[in-house]
Amino acid sequence: MKNRPKIKDIAEKAGVSVATVSRALADSALVTAETRQRVHDLARELDYRPNVSARNLRTRKSMAVLMVVRDVGNPFYLEILKGVEATAREAGYAVLMGNTENDPARETEYFDMLRDGHADGMILMTGKLPPSGGWTHLAVVVALEMIEGSGLPHVQVDNVAAARGAVEHLISLGHRRVAHISGPVPEPMSVYRREGYRLAMRDAGLEIPRGYEARGDFLIESGERCCRSLFSLSDPPTALFVANDEMAYGAVHQLRRMGRDVPRDVSVVGFDDLYLSKAFYPPLTTVGQPRAEIGRTAMAVLLGILAGDGAYGIQPIVLPTTLKVRGSTAPPRF
Asked: Where is each HTH lacI-type domain found (predicted)?
């Protein structure tokens, strides 16, 4: 078997020292551009690959980061992962996905991985910290799912304003009986989206009838369940603002089972703008979040922390949302 090429093989061919090759491969400014180019060309010619284990042993870094989510099967996270991975790759980091399934024991295990040096930092998207504590010295960035009072840097959207805008769209179409399917209150993201709904209704002078706020859990089945509950009321709504797209899919499926057309009989607005929402029938009106940008920004903040920049964690970074008006909303039939 052919021996794996080493730095000294490149050094011999280039006629420079091993230290110079090492600096050139790291694109150090201490090496001239001409020498850097020659070393990189020889590395490609020899099919040189760095010994990552040895490098990590020297630097005491794993050169890996964790992205920890509630459910790795949820397509919502894919665009965020792409943004995280693109920025991480540019900096020489690998991205490991952590799947908690809302299990506190698994959540704690990922923090243990961070403490034990199996990863250098974490992008946390579960909205939860280990109850045992011991995480304050770790490099953690919270993305989207807020953890109030944690002191950790956050990358998020304005959930109140985004939800408010979605409900105002329904009101502008003429809807007066607008109900809300929330996420798992009292989690902050769910609370803020519900607050946006309430503010829009209040500003329009519309009361929220008893039973018009149904509590879901962000899963499709809860959208179906909440929809059944809302349409068992004596005066059911003509429009639904649903706290995420997945529950909105469930609500639309349930409305069809009950013989109600969307949007002719009931208008539905979701939140997230999953890639399936364009292909869904009818195409779902929803709040679009810049998921790839959220991933890129969260990873950039994490890289800053790993580089020793202490400027993060005071004010959250808030990225804009966009209401995507599609075929699931229309004026009500009176």
From this structure: 5-59
Residue 1: the pLDDT is: 40
Q: How many residues does the chain have?
A: 334
* Cα–Cα distance for residue pair 136/138, rounded to 1 Å: 6
| H or E element, residue 69 | strand 64-69
Q: What's the order of all strands across the beta sheet hosting 267-272?
A: 213-215, 178-182, 239-242, 267-272, 285-288, 322-324
Q: CATH says 61-155+291-318 is which class? A: alpha beta
Question: Domain residue spans in the chain?
Answer: 7-50, 61-155+291-318, 159-289
Tell me: pLDDT of 277 over 80.
Answer: yes
CATH topology of domain 159-289: Rossmann fold (3.40.50)
The pTM for the full model equals: 0.79
Q: Tell me which fold the domain 7-50 belongs to.
A: 434 Repressor (Amino-terminal Domain) (1.10.260)
Which residues lie below 8 Å from residue 138, measured CB to CB, with a gap of 6+?
111, 114, 115, 121, 122
Report the C-alpha gap between 158 and 262 in whole angstroms.
28
- C-alpha to C-alpha distance for 263 and 248, rounded to whole angstroms: 13
Same CATH fold assignment for domains 61-155+291-318 and 159-289: yes
